[in-house]
Design brief:
- The chain contains 15 helices and 18 strands.
- By secondary structure, the chain is α+β, with helices and mostly antiparallel strands.
- The chain folds into 3 domains: about 1-95; about 100-240, Serine Threonine Protein Phosphatase 5, Tetratricopeptide repeat, CATH 1.25.40.10; about 280-515, Sandwich (Jelly Rolls), CATH 2.60.120.620.
- It is globular and about 90 Å long.
- This is procollagen-proline 4-dioxygenase.
- Its EC number is 1.14.11.2.
- It is found in: Endoplasmic reticulum lumen.
- InterPro entries: Oxoglu/Fe-dep_dioxygenase_dom (IPR005123), P4H_N (IPR013547), P4HA-like (IPR045054), Pro_4_hyd_alph (IPR006620), Pro_4_hyd_alph_FE2OG_OXY (IPR044862), TPR-like_helical_dom_sf (IPR011990), TPR_P4H (IPR059068), TPR_rpt (IPR019734).
Length: about 525
């Protein structure tokens, strides 16, 4: 009986211990909940600024991912597995949209792209500074480590070095530290080696060994780096002195170096503009249709040969809101057409989300389609549906042609409407910084201007593709970028834009059929 009494006492103690454990666990869970609540209230008060700044967007996704792992761990320690299963099911049904590892990776890659394109200093980014944008919360050593780690998984050792070094520098100032110095040094050492910095890789690995002599890789890697240096003819006595300049090459992204250089310079608005060329440009009222006598289009010529124009105030805020409302549920990762198969597929050189809208979807879409015909004088029956594109953090589209070249015979085969003769690009929003449209061959930059539309011809009058129209969408640095694309095809344009046998025949204005140029004459008739 005494043993039973002892057993009862033990059971009571076990229960009390369990209650104490659960109380502590629930208190930790309450703290996490309060963190979520505080962060959510702050995000709501800041509005879209929380997600339109690339640093803030990265921090938001990273913190959500990290905190959710904490929540899962705390809940799994109790009988909450049933609840967790319900949460998982809801997430699969898209009832709860929570960031994934892919989202975090995308935000990181976008941040790195912005860093390269706009030549942003690593320390400035980590301090929350992006050009003239409002300062954001600085990154911790662990945040920098995560950026470097994601770069490493992509075999992007250039950015791994930049961000692991930044993480290392920040770790010195943190108490308590937010990251493991050993992990940082290991990634940094191997990345230095991959970029051709053997002596520096050895130096960092020795730091790692001094920090943790029991590290599983440090001692072996030191020997390996020493052997490689000997193979290169460097004496052991010189392994730790006379360090050459740091080598850190950007990874190859598939673009020609010269085009990449001009593309990024155009995005930064660093390419000088010819005063002589701009002095020839002008604005005019397009009134070459009876309807336009009362409501003419304002047209700004951006350049000649080839003609690129900007239509001013051709889409209203109300129309933009309606289009966004219709498009948002349909947005999917943007695709490009495979030049060999004609099939649509995703590509790393185009990062955005898009949706396609028909004229029958809403009267606003139909109205815009009709307006495009008045703007361009081109028949819309053979044009593609209106494509709505949303560019998020680092969203971009590398230099490309809108038309199909001779080696892409299947590009628009399924449409049966010929090649893309022209492009109309509506700017539905205006990013705070970045997001320009640049023509790499023409050395021309057009910054997004809300409610306006850019227009150009992709083909010569002979039907041949105009290689000078190669263009790109620069990554959005801060803000949101929504655009609407309308690609107009050759069929039905035989009388709207008649063929010309000479490449020298160029439009001087939109719908040029030989009437006087509207520089000094009213644009009242296409004939």
């Amino acid at each position: 009986m005494e043993s039973l009494l002892d057993a009862e006492k033990d059971i009571s103690k076990i229960i009390e211990d369990y209650i104490a454990s659960e109380t502590a666990r629930l208190e930790n869970l309450r703290k996490v909940s309060e963190e979520y609540q505080n962060r959510n209230e702050k995000a709501i008060s800041e509005g879209l600024k929380t997600v339109t700044n690339p640093i803030s967007a990265f921090l938001l996704i990273n913190h959500l991912m990290t905190n959710w792992r904490r929540v899962e761990q705390l809940m799994k320690e109790s009988e909450a597995e049933g609840f967790l299963r319900n949460v998982t099911l809801a997430r699969h049904k898209n009832q709860l949209r929570y960031p994934t590892e892919e989202d975090l990776s995308g935000a990181t890659i976008g941040l790195l792209r912005l860093q390269d394109t706009y030549r942003l200093d690593t320390t400035d980014i980590a301090n929350g500074k992006i050009m003239q944008a409002k300062m954001t919360k600085p990154l911790t050593a662990n945040d920098c480590y995560e950026i470097g780690r994601h770069a490493y998984t992509l075999e992007d050792y250039y950015h791994t070095i930049l961000w692991m070094q930044e993480a290392k520098d920040r770790l010195r100032k943190e108490n308590p530290p937010s990251a493991s110095l050993a992990d940082i040094l290991e990634y940094l050492a191997f990345s230095l080696y991959k970029q051709g910095n053997l002596k520096r890789a050895l130096q960092v690995t020795e730091q790692l060994y001094r920090l943790n002599p029991e590290h599983p890789h440090a001692k072996g890697n030191m020997k390996w780096y020493e052997d490689l240096l000997v193979e290169e003819g460097i004496k052991p006595s010189e392994h730790r002195r006379d360090f050459p300049p740091l080598q850190n090459r950007r990874p190859d992204d598939g673009l020609d170096d010269s085009e990449r250089t001009i593309y990024e310079a155009l995005c930064r608005n660093e390419v000088p503009v010819s005063t002589k060329a701009t002095s020839q440009l002008y604005c005019y009222y397009k009134m070459d249709r009876p309807y336009l006598y009362l409501a003419p289009f304002k047209v700004q010529i951006m350049r000649f040969n080839p003609l690129v124009v900007l239509f001013i105030d051709v889409i209203s805020d109300e129309e933009v809101e309606m289009i966004q409302l219709i498009a948002k549920p349909r947005l999917k990762r943007a695709t490009v057409q495979n030049s060999r198969t004609g099939e649509l597929e995703t590509a790393t050189y185009r990062i955005s989300k898009s949706a396609w809208l028909r004229g029958t979807d809403h009267e606003v879409v139909d109205r815009i389609n009709k307006r495009i015909e008045l703007m361009t004088n081109l028949d819309q029956e053979s044009s593609e549906e209106l494509q709505i594109a949303n560019y998020g953090v680092g969203g971009h589209y590398d230099p490309h042609f809108d038309f199909a070249r001779s080696d892409e015979p299947k590009a628009f085969e399924s449409l049966g409407t010929g090649n893309r003769i022209a492009t109309a690009l509506f700017y539905m929003t205006q990013p705070e910084i970045g997001g320009g449209t640049v023509f790499t061959e023409l050395r021309t930059t057009v910054m997004p201007s809300k409610n306006n539309a850019l227009f150009w011809y992709n083909l010569y009058r002979s039907g041949e593709g105009d290689l000078r129209t190669r263009h790109a969408a620069c990554p959005v640095l801060v803000g949101l970028k929504w655009v609407a694309n309308k690609w107009i095809h050759e069929r039905k344009q035989e009388f709207r834009r008649p063929c010309a046998l000479k490449l020298s025949v160029q439009e001087r204005y939109v719908g040029d059929l030989g009437a006087p140029e509207p520089r000094n004459h009213p644009n009242i008739s296409p004939f």
